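re: ur question from earlier - yeah i can do the single chain one, its not a big deal. heres the input i used so u can compare w yours
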Amino acid sequence: MKNYESYFVAKQPILDRNLATYGYELLFRSALEDDRAIIDDPDMATISVVTSGFIKSQEELTQNKRVFINFTEKLLLDGAPRALPPAVTVIEILETTQFSERLFDKLLQYKQEGYLLAVDDYSLKATPYAFLDIADIVKIDILNHDKVEITDIVESLKNRKALKLAEKVDDGATFRSLQSLGFDLFQGYFFARPENLEGRKIGSSHAVRIRVLAVLQQDQLETGQIVEAITSDPGIAYRLLRLLNSAAFGFSMKIESIQHAVVLLGNVRIRHWLQMIILSDIASKQHPQELLHLALSRGKILEELSLEGLIAKPSGDKLFLFGLLSLLDIMLDMPFPEIFHDLPLSADFQAGYLVPDSVMGRYLQLLYAFEKNIISEIIDSCRILDIEPRAVMEASIRAHAWAEAVLHVGL
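and the output i got, formated as tokens:
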């Protein structure tokens, strides 16, 4: 049985007048072979794009490329865009979005935080003027208008600072005509069809999802509470680390603990990101409970040994992360060297997963020996690490009880 789930997203480039890439629009896909979006639930489609598609799209992007994402009215009001970095995120306001003072105030907040706002499928008759007043980009579907209508639309926007983006530009003659009319950005089959991408994610157990969601509802949420929620599931931890390693953030340092990752991302952004991760996973039917239990137990055993003073370094939280992620190769059905392309792990961590005689590798060998219950290997590992077997056994009992509670008891 597969312990991971596949997800799909398409990206289509958006070019400027000189045919340089300005950014990409991310589009929901339900299968790799789909050439259009088949959407049953618009909210869940957006959540999938934000939580998984954004990370996948960043693998080949540079930091200065904008990413356009459609957000439903509900998700805009819920604060969903804050899961992504404002420096690269363009919030698309759908043509079906109705004006309200509450929504308008929310859009102003996003704009003040550094996000760009794009009005999608602008129409002279249908688009609320209030949205135009705060828009950074106005998108016009060329195929929905004749030449006269397009000219009238351009004329209506001439006194606004918003960039004009022509969608569905399918041939060179249309492109040149739109250039002469004053359009700034262009998107369509003439330049490139949407490229479908496939990624993999690890689902979270139901109890963990409910637990994390409950924690996130608290008004005063401390960093320690967020760290505890994330460390309860390796799938969440994995995606967090991938997010921080994306081109959009551009961190040069290696992330060595969940607390480090939370501090870098910030409580507000990580709260919104976590909420959507959990909602995305709720739709999943895959529950790799045994692997989750083992991953949690490994991390907790090493952390317990650190707290007992039996492992001097690295710190307990770093050891927990090391154990928590030690089964990713099985969960993703992917070798660790390939996983390292996506994960900002330190050299010590990487060596630990690949080199049995490395410092961190010896901790894994200790865990393997106890899991297999091979006495000779337990004695050898404990002797090398100068740890009493009884201490490891006691830590293991506490860790397994803790992992059981996390997966089955909830809050």
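The mean pLDDT is 79. not sure if urs matches, ping me
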